[in-house]
C-alpha cells in the first residue's frame, strides 16, 4: 500500500470521540515517518489548567501506531503498542500548535520501536517525547 | 485538606473535552490511593476497532496525578508528571468496565512514583499497568 | 525441564567476569519466580561512594531473563530482554544484603513481561524495582 | 570546574570491581556530552553466550551520571539516577568495540534527562539506547 493510500484510508475511517478530543491531525503517514499537529487549547486541560499529559501520550501512541502499521500493511499486518514511555519536558497552557514527528528506531519482523517528539511551534522547544514498542500482528480478517 | 475535601474540590472543577472523552470516573481520591473506572466503548477506539492505548495512558496519568497532588495539597503543592510508562497487556473491544487503581511506590519531598493498574471487571485480568513519576511543585497562586 | 534442573544447569555454566562482579546469587529459579541476593559492598560503588545503579539494573535483567528463559525452556526457547526499565528508590552505601525477587506480569507466546523488586534485608525497604520485557526466541542449536 | 578538570578528577578516583568489569572507558566528559567505549568480549557474557544487557544499562547509567554530575559540579551538586530505561536493539557476541555517546535531553534545576546511545564500531548499528532521569543533589560534605 502506498503512503498516500495509507493516509487516505486512515482518513476515511470514522474517528472515535476519544481520538477526536485528543486532537492529533495527521499530516503525513508512511512506514518510516509520521507527522501531524495538535492545536493545544483549554479543551486539553487537566483540572489544574495545563495541557493533560495524556494528550501527549495519546499523540505518541497514535503517531507510532500509524507509522508502524503503515510499515507492515503490505504483509497483511498492523502494529499494536505494548509499551508507551513518554517524558514530559515542558508544560503548556494552550494557545500553541504542537508539532508531532514519529520515526522508527527499529523495525523488526516481530517488533518495532518508534520515537515520537512533540515540539511547540511557537518556541521550537520540546514539550514531550516518547517511545512506543509495538508488536506486528495479523490484520483482523 | 481531607480526602473528602480533595475529591469534592476535584469534582467541582469543570472537565475539559479531552478529560471527559477519556472517560475516567474517579470513585475515591486520597494521597495514598485513587480508584476509578471507565466504561470502555467504541467511543474509545482506534481506527482499528480496539480501545486506544491513549485511554489507558491517560487514565494512568490522571489517577497518579490526582493521588500525588492530594498527597501534597496540604503543603500548597501539586504534582506534575515527568514520565509515564505504561504497558498494554490485553486489548479490549469495549463493552466492559475497566477498574483503575493507583497507589504510591514512593513519596519523597521532591518526587513521587505511582503505580496504576487497569483491570477488566468482566474477566478480572489486567488490561494495562503504568508507572508515573511526578515532581511536587508549588500550586499556582 | 524441571525447576531444579534449570537452576542446576544455570549454575553449571561458567560465570563471566561481569556477571560475577554484579554479584547476584540466584537462590531459586523457576518459570514463574526467581529469587536471589547480592551482598552489597564497596565492590559495587560508583566514584561517588554509593552502590552503582547498574548493579540493580543488572540484577533486574538477570533475574527476569533467568525466569523467562526457564518458562520457555521446554519449548526449546530462551528469552532475551528488549527493554529494561528500572527505578531507583533508595541509595545504599553497602554493608547490606539486597534481596531480589522476580515474578512475571505477563507470559505470552511471543513476549513476556517480568517485575523485579530489590529490597534491603536490613530495613525491609525497596532499593530498586524494574520491569523487563523479553522476547521468546529459539535456543541456539 | 572545567571539563578537563572533571574528567581528570573522575579518572583519579579508584574504580570499584563492578565498574571495572562493566568496562566503560570514558573518553570525554563534559556537562553536555560524554563519550566512551567498551571492548565487548566473553567477559561480558550471559550464561547464553551474548553480551549481558546489564553491560549496556550500566554504561547508560554511568555515562548519564557522569555528564549530569559534570553539569552541576559548579553548584556543589552531583546527579543521581532515579530511572534508567534501556532498549536493547541488537545482540552482540563480542569481538567488537561499542561506542557510547551521552547527551542531555533536558537539564533543569532539579532534574536532568539524558539520552545514551551505544553503537557497534564494526557495523555502525545501534546495539542499545537508554534514557536516564537524574535528580540534582548536594555533594556529600
From TrEMBL, chains A, B, C, D:
InterPro entries: HotDog_dom_sf, PAAI_dom, Thioestr_dom. Coiled coil: none annotated. It comes from the Bacteria. Keywords: Hydrolase. Pfam families: 4HBT (PF03061). Residues 49-125 form the Thioesterase domain. Belongs to the thioesterase PaaI family. PANTHER family: 1,4-DIHYDROXY-2-NAPHTHOYL-COA THIOESTERASE 1. This is PaaI family thioesterase.
Amino acid at each position: 500500500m502506498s503512503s498516500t493510500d495509507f493516509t487516505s484510508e486512515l482518513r476515511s475511517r470514522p474517528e472515535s470521540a476519544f481520538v477526536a478530543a485528543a486532537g492529533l491531525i495527521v499530516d503525513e503517514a508512511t512506514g518510516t515517518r509520521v507527522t501531524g499537529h495538535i492545536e493545544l487549547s483549554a479543551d486539553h486541560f487537566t483540572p489544574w489548567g495545563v495541557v493533560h499529559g495524556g494528550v501527549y501520550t495519546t499523540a505518541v501512541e497514535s503517531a507510532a501506531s500509524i507509522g508502524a502499521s503503515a510499515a507492515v500493511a503490505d504483509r497483511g499486518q498492523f502494529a499494536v503498542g505494548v509499551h508507551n514511555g513518554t517524558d514530559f519536558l515542558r508544560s503548556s497552557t494552550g494557545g500553541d500548535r504542537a508539532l508531532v514527528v514519529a520515526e522508527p528506531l527499529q523495525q523488526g519482523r516481530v517488533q518495532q520501536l518508534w520515537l515520537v517528539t512533540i515540539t511547540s511551534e511557537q518556541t521550537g522547544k520540546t514539550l514531550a517525547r516518547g517511545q512506543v514498542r509495538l508488536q506486528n500482528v495479523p490484520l483482523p480478517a
